[in-house]
Write a structure and sequence with these properties.
mainly alpha, 434 Repressor (Amino-terminal Domain), binds zinc ion
Length: 583
């Protein structure tokens, strides 16, 4: 009998189905990760329903299972107009909606579409925009390249003002109808205006960017904010877990030690934070707003990611490796030293001296402690080697200190203010050592670095003076207004300073000319009047008439006088002879 192949007709095990289509979120692990509100819009679109239908029929019932919200209609009208931005943030509602959407779609990574990863570090206040902001060029590019059009999480944060891709400021009004856009509405599609339904993308360079294109400090600050925030969003899925509030406090405490030698008031002054607020941050449990976190990181010249995740700084000065490699030669008990003991002692000290010239080496006390002898025993038994070690340490000390001093002096001469940490890293030492050996230079570096906010304010004011139509004030007047000396402006803002001086000079010259024109007109008028009254318009009379004793002392004034007299038929030969004499 022929045997036929047997078919397995049992049903293969199927993974559980999800209620909604398992739409994949865009850009997780990149700076351009999608926002949750954008995901909801796209999810609705993929089911060919409006966001209203999706939210009201699927999400809301699951979220409101306990029936906390009774008055649906008032809750919904509030939600569509003002409530939706929180979905991208750090609030408990965000977490609940993420949970609901994960259940509905069987995705398990939707919390990356919100700021939930950072919820222990960032306060709720001021984190999110209330209305949408977008980069029209990003939209346009995605459409042209036939990519999915969506709205990144980065655009929802109020601290980010420019597109890191196109380096232009976000747009917040529809280019067609000039209306703002709420985050989620009953009928919304990514990339389209919800009022006039027209496309929001274009290839234009926004006008506000053009005016800022001189790369002002504000623009630089915005660039920095956009780039470090991008870094933060991209890093979220790569972390082992969300960074804790405790880590934040620990890091800040480390900075307190390194930058301010433990004085809270000093650090508060450096960071320009109120004392009490800094104290709260240091004590754990209190978190800054995202703005403040960025500001704080900018002051410390670290990125928020470095600060919150990698955030510990080492204040260890000497590398300890040599010490760790030394053998323990004695238990420390008094005993008679044999020749062998001395020989081993010598070998150990020679080993220490084999370290390359320039590398740090431990001091005699440390060596003695490590190998188990008293330091005097070392000195007595191996005087030559001990002397060599001391000399080597002195050389290294001098070299290192010279280097430190030079780096600090260079930093002060640098056009861009550098942070103390950057200087310390450049030399390869800690901020604490810089402070220890050169307290004055180090604090000048720190002050200069922190003053760069003030410098920005001053630069803005100077630019304002140059671009405005008001009368140009004198440099001294400006310096007084800005609370600095006029030579500070000359030294630090030379270009702007010069432009202002020239502008003021031009203005003053123009004013003088106008004044003289008026005077000449008055001279003419006075002469005519005297002439009509039948009085000879002598210089004395004219001057008296117009009440300006100096009017006829200038060459030009005199010329006008002569010309008018000539017109009226008076003899003018005598005038020239009198010249610049008294009236
Ligand atoms: Zn863009
Ligand atoms: Zn519109």
């Amino acid at each position: 009998m022929e045997r036929y192949e047997e078919w397995d007709v049992s049903i293969p095990p199927l993974p559980p189905r999800s209620r909604l289509y398992r739409l994949k979120p865009i850009g997780i692990g990149t700076p351009y990760v999608e926002s949750l509100t954008s995901y909801i819009m796209r999810l609705a679109e993929s089911h060919c329903v409006t966001p209203q239908a999706l939210v009201q029929r699927e999400i809301f019932p699951l979220w409101n299972q306990t029936g906390t919200i009774q008055n649906y209609s008032s809750w919904f009208s509030k939600f569509w107009w003002t409530g939706s931005p929180v979905l991208n943030g750090v609030s408990p509602i965000t977490a609940q909606w993420v949970q609901v959407l994960q259940t509905l779609t069987s995705n398990d990574n939707l919390h990356f579409l919100t700021m939930l990863t950072w919820s222990e570090l960032i306060g709720v206040n001021n984190l999110l925009r209330r209305k949408k902001a977008w980069c029209p060029r990003c939209f346009q590019e995605w459409r042209q390249n036939r990519q999915i059009v969506y709205e990144p999480l980065l655009w929802t944060l109020s601290a980010v003002n420019i597109c890191p891709c196109h380096q232009q400021t976000f747009v917040t009004l529809c280019q067609h109808c000039q209306e703002t856009q709420p985050f989620l509405t009953r009928v919304a599609r990514p990339g389209y205006c919800l009022h006039c339904m027209r496309w929001l993308g274009n290839n234009l360079v926004s006008s506000s960017t053009e005016t800022m294109s001189s790369i002002t400090d504000t623009f630089k600050m915005h660039q920095w904010q956009a780039s470090v925030t991008s870094e933060l969003l991209a890093a979220a899925p790569k972390l082992l877990g969300p960074p804790s509030n405790e880590q934040f406090a620990i890091t800040l405490n480390n900075y307190l030690k390194d930058y301010a030698r433990g004085h809270i008031n000093v650090l508060a002054r450096l960071l320009k934070l109120p004392y009490q607020r800094l104290q709260r941050y240091l004590q754990r449990g209190h978190v800054p707003t995202f703005d403040s976190l960025l500001q704080l990181c900018y002051s410390l010249s670290v990125t928020p990611l470095e600060f919150t995740v990698a955030g510990t700084i080492s204040s260890q000065e000497t590398r300890q490796f040599v010490l760790d490699l030394l053998p323990v030669l004695s238990s420390g008990k008094r005993k008679h030293l044999t020749d062998d003991d001395v020989q081993r002692m010598r070998q150990t000290l020679e080993f220490v001296l084999e370290v390359e010239e320039g590398d740090p080496i431990p001091n005699l006390q440390q060596i003695a402690q490590r190998i188990g002898y008293h330091v005097n025993t070392l000195r007595n038994r191996c005087p030559d080697l001990c002397h060599a070690i001391v000399m080597r340490r002195m050389r290294i000390g001098d070299d290192a200190r010279n280097q430190m001093r030079q780096a600090l002096v260079d930093a002060l001469a640098n056009d861009e203010p550098l942070s103390l940490k950057a200087v310390a890293e450049g030399v390869g030492c800690s901020c604490a050592s810089l402070y220890k050996y050169f307290p004055d230079l180090a604090s000048s570096v720190v002050t200069r670095y922190l003053e760069r906010f003030d410098r920005e304010r001053i630069r803005q004011r100077l630019q304002e003076v140059l671009s405005g139509n008001e009368r140009t004030p004198s440099i001294r007047e400006l310096a007084r207004q800005l609370g600095c000396k006029h030579y500070f402006l000359e030294r630090n803002f030379h270009g702007l300073y010069k432009q202002i001086v020239l502008r003021r000079r031009r203005e003053r010259r123009k004013q003088y000319q106008d004044r003289m024109e008026r005077t000449y007109a008055e001279i003419r008028e006075a002469i005519m009047e005297l002439h009509q009254q039948g009085i000879y318009p002598s210089r004395r009379r004219v001057v008296k008439e117009i009440n300006k004793p100096y009017a006829l002392r200038s060459k030009e004034g005199l010329e006008v006088y002569g010309r008018v007299l000539k017109e009226l038929g008076y003899p003018t030969e005598t005038i020239k002879k009198v010249g610049f004499g008294k009236n």
